[in-house]
Recover the amino acids of this structure.
C-alpha cells in the first residue's frame, strides 16, 4: 500500500473538502471535518438526536437503508468502533458485511484496489474504512470506488470524524451549546487522530477555548498552528473547565521513549479526583475508550457522577446512523440529478 | 378558485365527527398521535377539545418515507415523541391533509416499531383525493377538489389557516 503514502496529508485535506460534498453541498462521503461548516455539523448533530429516540424504542430499527449493502473494511482492529458502525448500519436496515482485511484476500497477495473493486462489483453502497495510513479513505473515495459512499472510521494520525462528532453530541446534550465553553483535551495528542478531529469540531462549532494539556513529547510539532492554548501543567490547566476529554495512551503507536513511565504519566497527567476538583463543579469527563484505568484516569472518576463515558458509546451509534444516512442520501441525490441530466426525466 | 374553508369550522366538524366515531367504536381511552407538522397542530387542538388526560404523541415520518431512493433524507428531521406505551391501545393518527396516502403508510410503519396497538384510526382535516394507496380517513373535516397543479397546506400554529400553492405539473 505504498500508493497511499504518495500524497502529503495537507493536499488530501484540501481535496477532501470538495470530495465529501455534492454540487449542492450535501454530504456524500464523510472523511474529515475539514471543510465542513457549522451548519453541516449542526445538521449531523440534529439528525443524530432523532436517531437517539429510535434507539429507545421497542424496535430500534428504521427502514432508511433497506436493501443497501454496507461493508465494514477494517484494516486495523477495533472492537467498539466496528461494533457501533455495524449496529448503526443494522438499525438503518442495511445489510452489513464485516471484513477483517488482515485475515483476508490482501494477505493472499491481492492489492487493496483489487479487493475494493471486487467489493464494488458485489453492489456495495458504502464502505466504512479504518486504516493505519493517513489518507486511505480519501484515496479510496477519489481513485478506487467513486460511486461508493466512504465513511472514515479512523485513518492513521489524520482523523476520526465520527468519534469527534459523537463527542460533540455528548457535549451538546450536557451543555446545550458550544458558545462560551472551555474544553481541554488531555494526554497523548501526538498520536491521536481523535484529538485532531475534536479540535476541528470544537472550533467549527464555536467553543470559546480548546486547551491542550500534555507533556511536550506528546504534542505534535505543528501545535502552534492548531489555534489551541497549550498547558504543560495539568493542575493549572484544569481551571475553569466545562469539559475535560481524556485520551488513551496509545502504547501501540509509541516509538522511542516519549514517556518516563506510566506511573509518572499518571501522577502528572492522569485524571484523578483531586485534579478534577480544580475544574468547574459541573465539568463533564469524557474519554473515547478503551480506558486504561490508573494510567490516564482514576476508576472513581471514570465511574463517577461527572463521567459521561458510557453516554459517548450510546451516542456513537446515533452519530454513525446520522452520517451513514446523510452520506447515502447525498449519493442518492447525486445519482438522481445525473440521470436527469442524461435525459431520464424532462 | 375554490373557496377555502375556515379552520375553526373544520375543527368543530372534526371534533364532532371524532366524538361520534369513538363512541360508535366503543373507544374510551384514545391516544392521539399527530404527524408533523400540521397534524401535530390539529391533534393538540382535538386533544384539548376532547379533554384527554394522556398526552399527545408526535411523529416525524422522515425515516419511513418511501422516496429515499429518489430524494434522500429530509434535512430537517426532528425526533418522534410518543410519551406513552402503545401496546394494546387504540391510537388515533391525525394529519392535516391526506392525499396519496403514502405519509399514512409511513406513519403506520413507524407506529408498529413502538409496539402492537389494538387499533389505529385516521383523522384528517382535509381530504384532497388523489389516493395512491388503499388508505381512507375514518373522520375528515372536508373533502376538497382542487386542480392537479394545486396543493393545500395548513399554516400555523397561531392562527391555523389554509393556504393553496401552485406546483409544477
Amino acid at each position: 500500500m505504498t500508493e497511499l503514502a504518495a500524497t502529503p496529508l495537507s493536499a488530501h485535506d484540501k481535496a477532501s473538502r470538495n470530495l465529501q460534498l455534492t454540487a449542492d453541498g450535501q454530504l456524500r462521503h464523510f472523511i474529515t471535518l475539514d471543510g465542513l461548516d457549522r451548519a453541516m455539523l449542526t445538521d449531523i448533530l440534529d439528525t443524530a438526536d432523532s436517531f437517539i429516540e429510535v434507539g429507545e424504542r421497542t424496535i430500534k430499527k428504521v427502514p432508511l437503508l433497506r436493501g443497501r449493502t454496507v461493508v465494514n473494511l477494517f484494516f486495523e482492529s477495533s472492537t467498539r468502533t466496528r461494533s457501533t458502525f455495524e449496529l448503526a448500519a443494522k438499525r438503518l436496515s442495511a445489510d452489513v458485511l464485516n471484513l477483517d482485511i488482515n485475515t483476508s484476500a490482501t494477505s493472499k497477495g491481492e492489492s487493496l484496489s483489487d479487493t475494493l473493486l471486487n467489493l464494488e462489483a458485489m453492489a456495495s453502497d458504502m464502505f466504512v474504512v479504518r486504516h493505519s495510513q493517513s489518507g486511505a479513505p480519501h484515496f479510496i473515495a477519489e481513485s478506487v470506488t467513486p460511486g461508493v459512499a466512504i465513511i472514515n472510521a479512523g485513518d492513521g494520525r489524520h482523523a476520526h470524524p465520527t468519534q469527534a462528532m459523537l463527542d460533540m453530541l455528548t457535549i451538546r446534550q450536557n451543555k446545550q451549546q458550544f458558545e462560551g465553553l472551555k474544553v481541554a483535551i488531555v494526554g497523548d495528542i501526538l498520536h491521536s487522530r481523535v484529538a485532531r478531529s475534536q479540535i476541528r469540531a470544537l472550533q467549527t462549532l464555536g467553543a470559546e477555548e480548546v486547551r491542550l494539556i500534555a507533556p511536550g513529547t506528546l504534542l505534535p510539532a505543528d501545535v502552534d498552528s492548531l489555534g489551541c492554548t497549550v498547558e504543560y501543567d495539568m493542575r493549572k490547566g484544569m481551571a475553569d473547565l466545562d469539559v475535560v476529554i481524556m485520551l488513551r495512551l496509545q502504547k501501540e503507536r509509541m516509538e522511542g521513549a516519549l514517556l518516563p513511565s506510566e506511573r509518572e504519566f499518571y501522577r502528572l497527567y492522569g485524571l484523578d479526583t483531586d485534579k478534577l476538583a480544580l475544574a468547574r463543579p459541573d465539568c463533564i469527563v469524557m474519554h473515547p475508550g478503551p480506558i486504561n484505568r490508573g494510567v490516564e484516569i482514576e476508576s472513581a472518576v471514570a465511574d463517577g457522577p461527572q463521567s459521561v463515558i458510557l453516554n459517548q458509546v450510546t451516542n456513537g451509534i446515533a452519530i454513525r446512523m446520522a452520517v451513514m444516512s446523510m452520506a447515502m442520501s447525498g449519493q442518492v441525490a447525486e445519482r438522481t440529478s445525473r440521470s436527469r441530466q442524461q435525459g431520464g426525466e424532462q | 378558485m375554490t373557496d377555502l374553508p375556515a379552520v375553526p369550522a373544520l375543527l368543530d366538524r372534526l371534533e364532532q365527527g371524532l366524538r361520534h366515531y369513538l363512541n360508535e367504536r366503543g373507544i374510551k381511552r384514545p391516544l392521539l398521535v399527530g404527524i408533523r407538522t400540521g397534524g401535530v397542530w390539529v391533534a393538540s387542538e382535538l386533544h384539548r377539545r376532547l379533554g384527554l388526560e394522556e398526552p399527545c404523541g408526535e411523529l416525524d415520518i422522515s425515516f419511513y418515507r418511501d422516496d429515499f431512493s429518489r430524494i434522500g433524507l429530509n434535512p430537517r428531521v426532528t425526533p418522534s415523541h410518543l410519551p406513552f406505551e402503545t401496546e394494546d391501545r387504540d391510537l388515533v393518527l391525525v394529519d392535516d391533509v391526506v392525499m396519496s396516502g403514502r405519509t399514512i403508510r409511513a406513519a403506520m410503519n413507524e407506529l408498529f416499531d413502538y409496539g402492537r396497538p389494538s387499533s389505529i384510526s385516521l383523522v384528517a382535516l382535509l381530504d384532497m383525493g388523489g389516493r395512491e394507496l388503499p388508505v381512507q380517513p375514518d373522520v375528515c373535516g372536508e373533502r376538497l377538489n382542487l386542480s392537479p397543479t394545486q396543493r393545500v397546506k395548513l399554516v400555523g400554529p397561531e392562527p391555523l389557516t389554509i393556504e393553496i400553492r401552485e406546483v409544477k405539473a
Notes: The first strand of chain B starts at residue 31 and ends at 35. Chain B is about 30% helix and 25% strand. Residues 15 and 168 of chain B are 34 Å apart (CA to CA).
